[in-house]
Amino acid sequence: MSMLPEIRASSEVYGEVTTGNLTGINIAGDLGDQQAATFGQACFDAGDAKNTYGTGNFMLLNTSTEAVQSKAGLLTTVCYKIGDEAAVYALEGSIAITGALVQWLRDNLHMIQAAPQVEELAKSVDDNGGLYIVPAFSGLFAPYWKSSARGVFAGLTRYVNAGHIARATLEATAFQTREVMDAMESDSGVTLNELKVDGGMVQNDLLMQFQADILGVPVIRPEVAETTALGASYAAGMAVGFWSSTQEVRDNWAEDKRWEPKMDAAKRDAYYKEWKKAVTRTFDWVD
What we know:
By secondary structure, the protein is an alpha+beta fold. The chain has helices at 33-40, 99-107, 117-122, 162-188, 205-215, 227-239, 246-252, 265-280, and strands at residues 11-16, 26-29, 49-53, 57-62, 75-80, 88-95, 132-134, 152-154, 195-198, 219-222, 255-259. Helix 5 links the parallel strand 9 and strand 10 (219-222).
């Protein structure tokens, strides 16, 4: 313990800029990428969760002042600390390949010319045609942590076309998020009643609807999707008195769009069962 760094505030004036155009400006915020996004999403209560959709996905669940030690394959991290208040912790689930799988379709398979085109291609079919893509390109991250896994296409038939591959690509992100959510609920004992989302992929309506369907809870996109920069700004603003409290930050958060689950439970369970089966096919590919 003596070798570990001291936990310092995420919202505190540490000094000021002394040179250049920003001379006199306070250095008042200290939040990293995913913690800043969690702060920007106003996830201040135990059980609040956000998911960032980038080349990979990062989902954080606020566990308040308790550093919950995961038994389900998640990471325990400091979420934020405001001034002299106690540090707030979180469970984090890291997924290696989500948006990167869309990039792979574009750059390696040349099925699309630009990432946003994956949605149009996926909409050309009604479902995944029985195809599941598990993108364990360099192993599986949360909740499995299997470095010997490698990616698979499972359920291929002659019926499958480019549209099904595009749809299975998007669905892979949603399925992996469901696995992380299940792990979080197992560790925390909290049942999520909604998921706040941000990052580049949240502009994909088809993905967000399927995400809500496979989770069985509403998925909510904020008006300001760049929540990492927003969260860092909030923390610094609170330190200098621009924002008075987390409640004021919460009141300033605004919803842009909400996707409600529409899939019936039996269909959701069937999809997820097939996904879990596909995941097992990736295990121990590398000896």
